[in-house]
Amino acid sequence: MIKLLIADDEALVCIGLQSMLKWEQYNIEIVGIAHNGAQEEEMIDTLRPDIVISDIKMPIKSGLEVAGSVRRKYGRLPLFIMLTSYEEFQYARGAIEVQATDYLVKLELTPEALAESICRAISTLEAYQTMESYPKLVHRGNLQAQRDKFFIRLLSGLFENKNQYLLQKEDLEVDLSAPAYLVCTCRILGPDTVPPRGDKLVALCSSTVQMAKDTLASRSACYVTSLDLRNFALTLPVPGPDPQLWMQDIQKLLADMASVLHNYFNVTIIGAIGFAVEDPFLLQGSYLAARKALPAAVKERSFVFFTEGEALLQEHLLFDFSESRLEIRRAFEEMDTRALHSIISRMIEIFDGRADLLVPATDAACNILYMATSLLADGENMVEQIFEQEPEGYRAIYQMHTIEEITGWLVQFRDGCVRMLATRRQSYKEQVVKNVQEYIKRNLGTKLSLNQVADVFNFSPNYLSHLFSKVAGVNYVEYITETKITAAKEMMVRGEGRIYEISQKLGYESAFYFSKVFKKVTGLSPRDYIQQIEGNAGEN
To answer: Do 483 and 468 form a contact (C-beta atoms < 8 A)?
Structure first.
């Protein structure tokens, strides 16, 4: 997707831009919101957006100063669309000098005008976007979405082991270094003026969650994860597990956030706060505690804290999803539609007519949903298609209050998933291998063991090895070796360091071992290869 950054010191302008267009229709993801020039430039450095919509006059640094600085660092990309409240020539001239693709006046801005400007920028981007003009552009196409999935897996206990969690945390650059963390589950209530479903509700809730992210952005290592239209989770850092160390501060932080969101959107935010854990890998316990306390928060229309000693969702004891999780994982990995149909059918039989199993049935359905979106290469898009006739899509599961509704959702998911996987089986496998290959190319400086990469992609090592060999036509180890040697040859052609420096950059333990592998693949030692390059250059 195309990555878009919005920068304006007026919060209402940022919110208006977010809701003015259906950005997904333009294959655009909003990756960040900046409220001053310094923050804008920092986000450009870290997020690498393709397009930036920037106000010209902002605190600390103007949009024109930022654009000029970015041009000097990165060349033609990202593209800038400049906004201003002033119709003065000096601003238009400044926008031209920094090669902005467009210059828009806020008071005259309409969805049609913004859409035209965005389409022009996309056309320009398609012409400019190459690795040479913006070498760090392609790092991860949808980093925020991947981080959301990471936290959903963490809160739902879907990591197979701690090593898998640590590898994905490092790969996604998730900072969880605070002494302790807790989870707060939040719910958006009202306003009565917005219909209970439809585009207006989607726009309201998505804008509310984005504003929550902006409001909490100054708090280090705080993460906001959207769970569905009206529910989101906060992962908050605290100084330790003792509630007396953080309870008052957390209460004030949440009250301030709720006040800001109420003032902007006329919504009421309520929530429940779980206990703190020193090991973030154990955050599922805090999340379950928060969920246990959520009914009290809804009743009181406020924020409440989980009381130590309360039983944690004892209903879960009536149905253990952990056994089914491994079977479903294998079915998704191997695209085994028969096994998937059998497993979900068995669950439906267990839940059918059991009103007392509503909570574990809902959790089981949500776990299956998360696994589909996490394990399948195009999982989220597939699930959206399965429920495209539903007013709220697959997210309708969070609004269901009877066991009949949950089992009906499971039936629809099962039949749609089996149908679509049967037709897309080969293309899914090809996409998985393509994603693995792209990951390898981005991380050539590491050892890239099969176990490590399998953990990053939520696969068992044996399955990934078999799938890679079958689809790529070469085994996993051979592919890594060939890719690293190809990269080494390119670095030698460009003169990027001595042999030992190149071997270090490519993650080899020693220059001797690198030279041995290089000669085995190419038939020449690295030194002979460099001399050959220099000889050819001399002849030309």
So the answer is: no
